[in-house]
Each structure stands twice: as structure tokens, then as C-alpha cells.
Design goal:
Layout (H helix, E strand, L loop, with lengths): L1 E5 L1 H15 L4 E7 L2 E8 L4 E7 L5 E4 L5 E7 H9 L5 E5 L2 E6 L2 E6 L19 E6 H14 L3 E8 L1 E7 L5 E7 L6 E9 H8 L6 E6 L5 E6 L3 E7 L8
Antiparallel strand pairs: 1-5, 1-7, 2-3, 2-6, 3-4, 4-17, 7-8, 8-9, 10-15, 11-12, 11-14, 12-13, 15-16, 16-17
Helix pairs in contact: 1-2, 3-4
Length: about 240
């Protein structure tokens, strides 16, 4: 059994995180191991994996004695509906079911068996060529442009101190541009293409303002979002293409 408490502000951040995940996945695994509490999930034909580490988002946290490793699978839409009904301080109990207590209200959501997704961990990436921080408002605007105008994949290219993007659909409508990066040295030139839908899933509803982006040549994209309360890491597999 795990029990957590959150005040209004931290609970709002927690709800935003669950909302973000529920727009990508149907289910997720809460995992407690030796003092660390996380959500780990993979989906999108195994193209997109996300791991959320809860740092200081809980005002109170307690775990039953002798529990060094516990996993709780949940249907995210059901969990989201329950926590969305709570407005103020909240208690969540993780055990044989999820019990959410907000004031005089109590909601219960069943625990599900995750089977093949148990013990899922993000893979370690060893061939990252470039890393930089970026304002998410710029990435989100780029994704909105591509979604409105062009194709189902985006080619990222880094060169000098810029991130270039390009997308084209079967009707030859094209969207391209560049984002100036605040880096001290010129970046190594790399190219990697990713699905627009998965990039949109990764970035459009994330409850952060900045991200650290890690890229390689035709290599998975690792995005890192972090503050004092939460750390979210997301890995997206590249869309390999013979096209230029």
C-alpha cells in the first residue's frame, strides 16, 4: 500500500501530468522501487516510451513496510475522470485498487494487470550527437504549423546554432523553418525524421515550458523535462526513410 497527499497547487500539476499521459496511452504502470515512485509506459506501436519520476510533487508519502518493489496498473481514462472531480487537497491510496479522496468525496478505480509491460524501463541511448535546451512554445508552434499544412513526418536537421525542420505531404504542400538555439558552440550536423503525430503527443500537452532535446543521425529522440517536482523523459523512435 502506498498513500500520497497533495495540496491544491501540486495536485493541479499531478492532474496535468495524468492528462498529458492519457492523451497518449490507454493504460500505465505506477512503479515503486526502493524509494523511487514512477510511471513507465510505452505505446504507439512501441515507437514512444515515457517515464515520469515523482520528485517533490507529494506533500506526504508513505509506503507499507517491507515493500521494496510494487507495481499498480491503471486505465488512464478512468483514473483521469476520477481525479478531475477533485479540486482541493487530495489523498490517493495505491493498493488493491486506486482510492482517491477529495474532501468528503471518494472515488475508486480498479487496478489492472499489465502483463508484458511490467518492469518496463526506457532504454539507455549511447549514440546521441547533439543536446540543447529549447523553449517549448517554439516547438509547439512548429508542430501546429505542420499539423495544419503539411505531412505526417518531420525531418529535423541541426546545423551551426539552429534546429531546422521540414515536412511535406503527398500533395507537395510543404512547411519548413528554423529555430535559433541558445548554445555556446556550433552543433554537429545531424538529420533524423520522426512521425508528426508522435511528436505532437510528446510535446503539445506537456506541462513544462522548456525541454532538453537529444538527437543523433537517424536515431531516437530523447526529450527531458524537469523541475523540482517532476522529471519526465520521453524517447521516440525515428522514422527511417530513403527520401532526402
Amino acid at each position: 500500500m502506498i498513500e500520497v497527499t497533495m495540496g491544491k497547487d501540486k495536485f493541479s500539476k499531478f492532474k496535468s501530468t495524468i492528462d498529458y499521459l492519457s492523451n497518449i496511452f490507454i493504460e500505465a504502470n505506477f512503479v515503486y522501487t526502493d524509494g523511487t515512485f514512477k510511471i513507465a509506459e510505452i505505446g504507439g506501436e512501441n515507437a514512444l516510451g515515457i517515464e515520469v519520476t515523482f520528485k517533490k510533487i507529494f506533500d506526504g508519502f508513505s509506503v507499507s513496510e517491507d515493500n521494496k518493489h510494487i507495481e499498480f496498473g491503471v486505465l488512464l481514462p478512468e483514473f483521469k475522470k476520477a481525479i478531475s472531480r477533485c479540486k482541493e487537497d487530495v489523498i490517493i491510496k495505491f493498493g488493491d485498487l486506486f482510492e482517491i479522496i477529495g474532501g468528503k468525496k471518494r472515488y475508486k478505480v480498479p487496478v489492472i494487470e499489465m502483463y508484458d509491460k511490467k518492469n518496463f524501463k526506457l532504454p539507455e541511448l549511447k549514440d546521441i550527437k547533439v543536446s540543447f535546451e529549447i523553449e517549448l512554445s517554439e516547438l509547439k508552434e512548429m508542430l501546429e504549423d505542420v499539423n495544419a499544412i503539411s505531412g505526417d513526418a518531420i525531418l529535423f536537421t541541426t546545423k551551426e546554432k539552429k534546429l531546422f525542420f521540414s515536412s511535406e505531404n503527398y500533395k507537395n504542400s510543404k512547411c519548413e523553418g528554423e529555430i535559433e538555439l541558445d548554445v555556446k558552440e556550433n552543433l554537429q550536423e545531424i538529420k533524423s525524421k520522426f512521425g508528426t503525430k508522435f511528436l505532437s503527443d510528446m510535446f503539445l500537452k506537456i506541462p513544462f515550458e522548456k525541454a532538453k532535446i537529444n538527437l543523433g543521425d537517424d536515431y531516437p529522440l530523447l526529450s527531458e523535462f524537469e523541475d523540482e517536482e517532476l522529471k519526465i523523459e520521453a524517447i521516440l523512435a525515428p522514422r527511417i526513410s530513403n527520401e532526402d
